[in-house]
Structure prediction request, 288 residues.
Amino acid sequence: MKPTAHATSELSCEVCGQLPEPTKARLTLANIAVMLPIELLVHAAVVETHLPYLAKVLVLTLTATILVIWVAEPSAARILRSWLHAPALRHRRKLGAAPALWRARTVLKDRPGALQKVTHALARLDANILSIHVHPVAGGVLDEFVLSAPGELREGELLRALLDGGGSEPQVWPTTALAMADGQTGALSLAARIAANPEELPLAVAELLHARIEPAPDADTAAAGTTPARDNTANDGTILRIPTAWHGPITFSRPGEPFTPAESARAHRLAELAEILAYSTAAPADPA
Prediction:
């Protein structure tokens, strides 16, 4: 398909509004195509005059320079814009058509054939399931997918497919190849990190869950019994509180992406490991 001026406008930078730099070869050819007719006309007009030789040279030089700066280069950039930026447009189309990775969640009835119906709905969109994790929840099972889908596919289409497949409470997020990393292996790596230094627990859990550490409530707030955060039993499940013996409860939040039961279990096991290591390290120093 031939590039259009409208298509090239999509390549402009969101910050400065400039188009990407065209290749040197295309820019040179475009400038020659616009400058050559101007040069020929100027030479033809000046050569026919009866000016002295040096005057002709001066007039040709000044006139050609001014016309090139004010007419030729802007005209080449405007008239041949689609041709100049054709390689970048082709590259953009390839990127747009490349498969995109998505994370998706939906609650299914815990009965035979429920998962098959969802997979068929996703297959109709040419969405390929790369991984799946099943978490028991109240009222069924929470299925979590990593999907590879066509680049032009939108979030709404995936949500409709999950609903059509019999799912409820569907959620979809764009993701990267990091979503394919094995969760158990990551948890073991972080456990080794905590074993070396139990004080790393908050940062390790935040890394494991891709969550944010919420600040601890001040003394007045804690005494009043009101805290800004909720535990993982909250309505949206985006707050997770882990009890520790030496730091008090540590609260993590992940807006828009509720924690799964497996993620909560892994975080609590890491907290237990850190607590065991902290007490075993402190025990020899205790005079008792």
Observations:
- The domain at 99-180 is CATH 3.30.70.260 (Alpha-Beta Plaits).
- The chain has a mean pLDDT of 76.
- Strands lie at 100-108, 128-137, 140-149, 168-174, 212-214, 239-242, 250-253.
- The chain has three domains: 17-93, 99-180, 183-281.
